[in-house]
Amino acid sequence: MRQNENKKGELTTQQIVAITILIASFIVILFLLFRLNLGEETGKELCRNSVLLKSKSILPKDSVSLNCYRSYKCITYDGSCEGLNEPEVVKVETKEEIYQQLSDEMSDCWYMFGEGKVDYVGTSATKNNYCSICSQIAFDNSLSNVPGVENGEISKDELYSYLSTAKINGDLTYAEYLFRTKDIESLKQAGAQSGAGTFGKIPTGKQSFVVMGITSQVNSWVWYATAAGVGALGVLAITPAGLVSIGVGLLVVSAGIAGSGAIIENFEPEISAIIVNGTNIPNIFLSPTIIEADSERFKALNCEEILTLS
After folding, report:
1. What is the DSSP string of 159-225?
2. Percentage of residues in the chain having pLDDT higher than 90
3. Is the pLDDT of residue 75 over 50?
4. Within 10 Å of residue 103's Cβ, how many Cβ atoms?
5. Whether 177 contacts 267, CB under 8 Å
6. Dihedral angle sign, alpha carbons of residues 138, 139, 142, 146
7. Are 288 and 212 in contact (CB under 8 A)?
8. CA distance 184 to 178
């Protein structure tokens, strides 16, 4: 009798195999979940959904909050990271991998806030320029070991060239998705008329924002007609010279004009962002751009309100 009870309590070979398969399957599923980073994807979708809901709300838009949070990332060569608490750490070995990470951050930002197709500030907005800091990125000092990262600086000209050729979906390049043109050289040539013929550089050892913006129907970002063959509305170039119309499709603005009260001194002029017109809406959009966190250049964007939560 006792021998039969022991046999009943023992696991058969088939049961052991089944349990082993279940455990292995569970481990694989967990691995895939971590690889897919579903938490991050959920955050992006929650933000996008809140943007869409706010745009359709019958309530005044300034009374409806967005469910959008800033993400934190550290791009590093050796795995070390300083300056951010518990960021997503991304190791890279080539400058192209850096550009790919930044391209994805910019396109995610554009996606979350409606791709220039959604008015989420409304015609009754009391402020002009509304900005969203989608992510804050620490560029680790170790990136100086990456071939092509010279003098501790990452070339944004090369990044924008990458955006104009790398594909985000099918035949669509990142630049076409973000700026509605891949003719980056035409924009640089327009900027060169003001002495701002470059997108500048990203310093390593510092942090930058991935930021985009939207204006209410009355706004302080002045723009001009698009140059022939260029899909973007224009470029936003920050120089020490003040607000100057220097050609078709170009906006030049200084910190003094933008509202900081003083002209920026001792910096090289650069194209800070590309401006695009809204799709079937009257708003103007500051396409996602990368700019040093809390810098004078960032203040010159005249972001009257930050819509993302830190």
Report:
1. HHHHHHHSEEETTEEHHHHHHS---HHHHHHHHHTTT--S--EEETTSEEEEEEEEE-SS-S----P
2. 36
3. yes
4. 22
5. no
6. positive
7. yes
8. 12
How many residues make up the chain in this entry?
310
* Residues pairing with 69 in the sheet: 309
Instruction: Write the DSSP assignment of 41-52 as a string of letters.
Output: HHHHHHHHHHHH
Distances in Å between the Cα of 28 and the Cα atoms of 17, 20, 22, 32 are: 16, 12, 10, 6
CB 47 within 8 A of CB 112: yes
Cβ 283 vs Cβ 109: under 8 Å:
no
Side-chain half-sphere CA neighbours of 207 within 13 A: 19
The type of residue at 190 is A
Collapse the DSSP code of 33 into the 3-class scheme (helix H, G, I; strand E, B; otherwise coil) and give the result.
helix
Q: Annotate 110-134 with DSSP letters as a single string.
A: HHHTGGG----S-TT-SSSEEEEEE
- Tell which residue, 144, 124, 287, 137, has the closest CA to residue 218: 124
Helix, strand, coil shares, percent, the chain, to 5:
35, 25, 40
Q: pLDDT digit string (tens) for 5-33?
A: 455 556 677 777 777 777 766 665 544 44
245 burial class (0-12, 13-18, 19+ CB within 10 angstroms)? exposed
- What residue has token string 């224009």? 234
Who's near 121: CB < 8 A, 6+ residues apart? 61, 62, 130, 214, 215, 216, 283
- State how far Cα 51 lies from the chain centre: 16
Taking the C-alpha atoms of residue 75 and residue 43, their distance in angstroms, rounded to an integer, is 20
Dist. CA 93–CA 65, nearest whole Å: 40
- Does 243 have pLDDT greater than 50? no
How confident is the model over 62-67, as a mean pLDDT? 78
Q: What element of type H or E holds 90?
A: strand 88-91
Separation of alpha carbons 124 and 145, rounded Å: 50
- Domain ranges for the chain, please list them: 67-306
